C-alpha cells in the first residue's frame, strides 16, 4: 500500500525536488500551497500526479483536513520568522490535529545544535522552532546536510573563479561539508517514507578543507589555485557586525552578512559532524564536489 506524504513548501527549489524523489519511490504525494501560488506551478505539480491544495496558511483546520491519513508531513518552507517559526508552528499543529505520526522540519542546513545562539539569524530561527517542536506529541526528524553544494557556483564566494583563489577565514585545514540539493531531496524522501528514523540525521555528499579545494580546483582547471586568507574568525566577526550595521536588510532572507555568518560557522569548526548517516539508505549515489564542478564546467574555464 502506498504511503501518503504531505509536502509544504512544495513549489520551492528544494520542495519540487523532494516531490520528484517521493514520486520516484511511488509515494502518494499531496502538496499544500498558499492561496497566492502561481497557477503554472500548481499545474506542473498536478501533471506529475500530485494532489495540490491551495489553503490559507493561517487556517490550521484547513491544513489539518488535508493531512488526514498521511504517514509524514515534510516542510520545505523557506523564509524568516513569519514562515520558519510562525507558519511552521501552524503546519505542525495541523499535522498533530490530523494524527500524523511523523514530521520533518525545514532545516536542511549545517548542524546548528552546537552553535552559540545570537550569532546566526536564520539558524537561530530554526533553533527557536526546535524548542517548540521538541515539546510536541509527534515524532520528528531533522536533516543536517552541511551547505548546499549548488551554492559553490552561485551565491557562496568560497571559490573565487576569476582570481583563482579559495577564500579562507581561519584554519585552511578545517573540514566543511557540502551536499547537492538533489541528494538532500532523495534523502528526505527516504526519511519521509521511513517507519522509524531518529530525531537527527547528518549527511554530507562530500567534505573538503580550503587547502583541499585549492588542490582540487588546480587539478580540474590546470591553473594554480591558492588560498586567499584576509584574516581569521575574529576579523570576520567584526566585518559581519559592520556589514549588518550599515546594511541591516532585516527583511532579506540572505543578506550579505547572513552569508558571512554561515561561512563563519562552517570555518569555525563547530558544525563538523561526528557521525554520518549517509549509509542509512543504500540506494543513494552521493555526488562529490569534483563531480559537481565537472558538471558545472562552464565556471571552470
Describe the structure.
It comes from Solitalea longa. This protein is an alpha/beta fold and 301 residues long. The protein has a domain at 4-145 and 180-204 and 273-281: 3-Layer(aba) Sandwich (Rossmann fold). It has helices at residues 13-24, 39-47, 60-65, 81-97, 121-133, 181-193, 210-221, 233-246, 256-268, 289-295; strands spanning 4-8, 28-34, 51-55, 72-75, 102-104, 139-140, 142-144, 147-148, 159-160, 165-169, 176-179, 200-202, 206-208, 226-231. It has a 6-stranded parallel beta sheet with strand order 3-2-1-4-5-6, with helices on both faces. It has a 3-stranded mixed beta sheet with strand order 8-11-13. A hairpin with a 4-residue loop joins strand 9 (159-160) and strand 10 (165-169). The protein is globular and about 55 Å long.
Describe the structure concisely.
InterPro entries: NAD(P)-bd_dom_sf, NmrA-like, NmrA/Isoflavone_reductase-like. This protein is an alpha/beta fold and 301 residues long.
Layout of SSEs?
Layout: E1 4-8, H1 13-24, E2 28-34, H2 39-47, E3 51-55, H3 60-65, E4 72-75, H4 81-97, E5 102-104, H5 121-133, E6 139-140, E7 142-144, E8 147-148, E9 159-160, E10 165-169, E11 176-179, H6 181-193, E12 200-202, E13 206-208, H7 210-221, E14 226-231, H8 233-246, H9 256-268, H10 289-295
Parallel strand pairs: 1-2, 1-4, 2-3, 4-5, 5-6, 7-12, 8-11, 10-14
Antiparallel strand pairs: 9-10, 11-13
Keywords:
single chain; 301 residues; alpha/beta; Rossmann fold; six-stranded parallel sheet; three-stranded mixed sheet; 10 helices; 18% strand
Amino acid at each position: 500500500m502506498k504511503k501518503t506524504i504531505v509536502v509544504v513548501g512544495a513549489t520551492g527549489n528544494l520542495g519540487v525536488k523532494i516531490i520528484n524523489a517521493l514520486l520516484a519511490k511511488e509515494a502518494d504525494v499531496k502538496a499544500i500551497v498558499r492561496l497566492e501560488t502561481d497557477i503554472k506551478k500548481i499545474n506542473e505539480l498536478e501533471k506529475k500526479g500530485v494532489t495540490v491544495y491551495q489553503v490559507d496558511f493561517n487556517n490550521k483546520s484547513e491544513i489539518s483536513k488535508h493531512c488526514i491519513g498521511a504517514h509524514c508531513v515534510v516542510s520545505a518552507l523557506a523564509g524568516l520568522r513569519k514562515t520558519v517559526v510562525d507558519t511552521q508552528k501552524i503546519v505542525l499543529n495541523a499535522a498533530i490535529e490530523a494524527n500524523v505520526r511523523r514530521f520533518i522540519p525545514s532545516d536542511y542546513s549545517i548542524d546548528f545544535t552546537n552553535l552559540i545562539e545570537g550569532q546566526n539569524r536564520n539558524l537561530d530561527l530554526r533553533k527557536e522552532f526546535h524548542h517548540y517542536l521538541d515539546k510536541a506529541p509527534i515524532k520528528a526528524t531533522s536533516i543536517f546536510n552541511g551547505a548546499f553544494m549548488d551554492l559553490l557556483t552561485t551565491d557562496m564566494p568560497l571559490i573565487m573563479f576569476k582570481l583563482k583563489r579559495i577564500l579562507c577565514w581561519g584554519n585552511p585545514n578545517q573540514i566543511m561539508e557540502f551536499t547537492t540539493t538533489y541528494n538532500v531531496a532523495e534523502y528526505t524522501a527516504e526519511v519521509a517514507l521511513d517507519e522509524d528514523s531518529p530525531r537527527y540525521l547528518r549527511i554530507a555528499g562530500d567534505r573538503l578543507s580550503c587547502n583541499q579545494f585549492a588542490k582540487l580546483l588546480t587539478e580540474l582547471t590546470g591553473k594554480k589555485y591558492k588560498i586567499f586568507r584576509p584574516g581569521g574568525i575574529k576579523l570576520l566577526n567584526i566585518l559581519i557586525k559592520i556589514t549588518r550595521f550599515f546594511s541591516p536588510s532585516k527583511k532579506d532572507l540572505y543578506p550579505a552578512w547572513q552569508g558571512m555568518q554561515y561561512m563563519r560557522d562552517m570555518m569555525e569548526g563547530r558544525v563538523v559532524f561526528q557521525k554520518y548517516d549517509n549509509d542509512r539508505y543504500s540506494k543513494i549515489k552521493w555526488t562529490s564536489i569534483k563531480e559537481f564542478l565537472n558538471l558545472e564546467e562552464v565556471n571552470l574555464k
